[in-house]
Amino acid sequence: MDPGSASEPFRLVETLFHRALAVPDEERESRLAEWCGGDAELLREVRSLVGAFTEAGASGPPPAPDPWIGRQLGHYCVERLLGSGGSGAVYLASRTDGEFHMKVAVKVLASRFTTELLQERFIAERGILASLAHTNIARLIDGGITSAGEVYVVMEYVDGPPLDCWVDQHRPPLDALLRMFLAVCDAVEYAHRNLVLHRDLKPANILVDGEGHPKLLDFGNAKLLGPESSGRLTQLGFRAFTPDFASPEQVLGGPLTAATDVYSLGVILYRLVTGKPPYAFKTYSGGEYIHVLRDYDPPAPSAAITRVVGPAAHDAPFPPAQRRRQLRGDLDAIVMKALGKEADRRYATVAAFAADLRCFLEARPVTARVPTLRYRARKFLWRRRRTVVAALIVAGLFGAGVASTLRAARTARAEEQRANRQFRDVRDLNRALVFEIYDAVQALPGSTEVQRSLVTESIDYIDRLHRESPGDADVGIDVVEAYTRLGNLQGNPYSDNLSDPDRALETLRKALDLARSLARNNPNDRRMQRLMGLAEQGLGEVYFGKRDVASARAHLEEAARLLDAAAHRPPLSAPALAEAASVQGVLGDTYSSSLGRVEDRAKADASFARSEALDREALELDPAQERARRGIAMMKMQARRSMANLRLEAMMRTKLAAILPSIGAFDEGTAQARAALRVYESVASLDPENQRSQVDLANAWYYYAESLDYKSEKGGKRDLEDARRGYGKALAVCQTLLRASPGHSLWSSMAAETEFRISNLSEKLGDRPAAEAAFQRARALAIQIADREDAGQAELARAAVIFSSEDLPAAWRDLPRARRYAARLNDLTGGTSPHYLYTLAHICRLEGKIAEARELIGKAEGLLPAHAPPDPKPYLRRQIEDEARAISAAGGSPARPGKSR
Amino acid sequence: MSEPNPGEITQLLHQWKDGNRDAFDQLMPLVYSELRNIATGLMRRERGGHTLQPTALLHELYFRLVQQRRVGIGDHSHFFAFAAKLMRMILIDHARARSAQRRGGPNIRVPLSDELSWLGDDESDLLDLNRALDRLELMDARKARMIELRFFLAFTVVEIAETLEISKATVDRDLKFVRCWLYRELKGAPGLPPA
Prior knowledge:
The complex is a heterodimer of chains A (901) and B (195). Among the domains of chain A are: 8-56; 72-156, 2-Layer Sandwich (Phosphorylase Kinase, domain 1), CATH 3.30.200; 173-366, Transferase(Phosphotransferase) domain 1 (Transferase(Phosphotransferase), domain 1); 650-890, Tetratricopeptide repeat domain (Serine Threonine Protein Phosphatase 5, Tetratricopeptide repeat, Alpha Horseshoe), CATH 1.25.40.10. Chain A has 34 helices and 10 strands. The longest helix of chain A has 34 residues, at 626-659. With 195 residues, chain B is mostly helical. Chain B has one domain (6-187). Chain B is built from 8 helices and no strands. The radius of gyration of chain B is 18 Å and the shape is globular. The chains are: A mainly alpha (901), B mainly alpha (195). At the A-B interface, α1, α3, α9, α22 and α24 of A face α3, α4, α5, α6 and α7 of B.
């Protein structure tokens, strides 16, 4: 389906609609009249839509006057809306009796939300709040049910901004901010002690009053735990949450415990101390939540604080460098512990979380650091004890090595020799780290954090290495390779990666830039071509993962060119050829992923084929090249997959093309058939011996012609001619099929039908000789297939129609033969098919047997399913009704047999 | 909502990977049944509740297929458009059955988006909407796609823009027009005698 296809008149109406709304109200009428010229229909159309806009509004109906405002609820008069959300709305109200004046917040359950479940929850919230009395929790004051049965609660009104806004505005120093946060923790802890989980903790639910006291509100999502579960705050709850602050178990489904609120508090603290959330959701889709919450570890708070430069610097809520220093270490550990993906890795209680924060404020050791290490150690030792130890030792050596090397490099020329030697050592170590240790660590479960820190440290190190040794080609090559490798680890969707495509692009660009500058000095060096190619490939793959297909293709095309060239510079090497093959495969992926464009499919096929050819070349050089062997298998699969998808899509289009004309959607039918044709033609040309491709092609041509044929009742001569040409194409394919298997009943039947259509169209076009020739061929084929013992219903029906056509000269008819076929059809179906009864009635009418025709058509009509008027009339019903009318018309004076229409 | 048996799908996906084309054909009804489950969830869904959305479940389904690396990352737009259409079919069939039997089955809350808040909750309203969408489709297929994604899968504007590969501004503009067009089609032209 072509998504951009809007019919011309509709597009005009739309354009005028938007233009009309853009002019001031008072000018609209006159401008509209002017634009529409004299077209009253168009004017009416646009005017009615503009009217609908005023009535329905830009986003639904006009805001009805709020029925709550001005209402008296108990002692309180509702004044204005404060906000609305999840389950209801909150209004500002004031107590009016006597001299006593007090502002309160009234929460009501909006009428359209009054499902039983929500009412229950609402009432539960009231019960929960009533049981809580804490300075940092908005107090419950009153509540009731109106005479109309609406429930409401009256709460303390907190006149202030949400916690995060307050912090952004007031920019408190870290210790003041933490003390404020601790007050929130106390409130949550208090609720937990009262067996209440909040489950929707977020800054918007924590307001800060004029004196700087945070107040927790909205227990609408809270769960009151029954006494039976009082031991552990565990409850499998109704799933409702705010994604940014929800814990993995809320998103993924799991028991909710006090640790759930700990997690949300952790997110809030992260946001407060760094100024940004730990996760930046892009699409807010379920898949994304799941992916991010399960697989992505946020950077530690100190790492999340980025350098701010330029005019924005003095707008920063805190001096970044200082804040980074303050967070690094203990506070990082505390926040990350609260954000543990598994509940049992977090603080078990809010009290424990708060206690650690207090330790931090008092500069005492925090508990967060030790257990995490132990936990990690346990996880690592679980399977690959030896590798882990090696990794940790190397990581430790590595840090020391860099420091001493850099120091040495800086000291003096006199020590150059020694520095160089050490430099080499560190380079070797780096290679080991990047290329070997990482692989080992990557295979370990739960090692994402270690991987991330290894990658970050490695990049820092390589940056320095690069700066310290400008112009050294060998070091340059190492650096490019390392950047490419690390960039891919950061976010290349084709390998296991750390899901950070933006950083990946940054690193890969460094690789490409450096590779290019190296290549300038060594233009004929195949190593440089290869390096550029691999960096381009990385960039292309990361872009593809980001769904930026255009950028992906540009980089991959370049990568394919470079790697192909590099692989073919002597001496040939199997691994280089396999590399070139691999990038072609990815390029093919980018083309086969865009649906509906045959040119792209052809490019995909070309890439897959090139990939396979390169792999074969590699195997000729080295039969043991495993990568090439795997590549060939994969390309075969890819080509098949893309073919299967393509066929499925084309099949759907053909089905649509067959159906659409019967509901009057001729143009759409033609468009679908044309799209299917494009696909089938390309498939058939790739695979001309395949019978299925040919049958598909014949069908597609047939439906294409048919949609034009039906349309031609409304359309003109050109449609008729196009339709005839289309049937001609279908016929040609049928004839090819018949040459391969002469007398095949299906192809013969298709050919007969197609010839018959061609004959009809030729007659309409006034081309009698062509009509007659086609009819004779149709006739011969029809007799051949319908006279067989085993002739099926479709063949018989087709033949009956061919021999009783009213669209062709009466002399060509053979009514006795048509009757024989129609009678047999009704025998086969026991007279229960409205379609065949109609066929026989039609023949009777032509024979002049009006009474019989009338009886038959009545029977046929009675067998039709009921028709509900607004639905389009099914084609068969229309045919039958037309026939019934024709029979009535012929009623008094029976038509003479053989009378032309 | 019952979890489909992921093992079965994985197995078929593997067979498909190994070149078994029948597996592909068997996979389609399995996706269909998952969509049906999501639709059943829709019928039970409370309006406006901040629950895990059906959209999320759909994304999860797709994500799972992607994670198996058996569906390409680039196939998302086709998958979602297909799912929206299927979802519309399922819901409309349900509404038809309900209106024919005058009983049975849970009530459906469609459109999912509150944009057509003036549309009633009756089956007949839904069937009217369906017919209007059929008409819209003949005139402007892209807008019909958009509405399907919006109403039957509760896609956000951003998601629609990504899926149809058009800008967010275009989606906003198109939705504004279609909202009015549907209002006019279903409620009659304001201030004018109904056609």
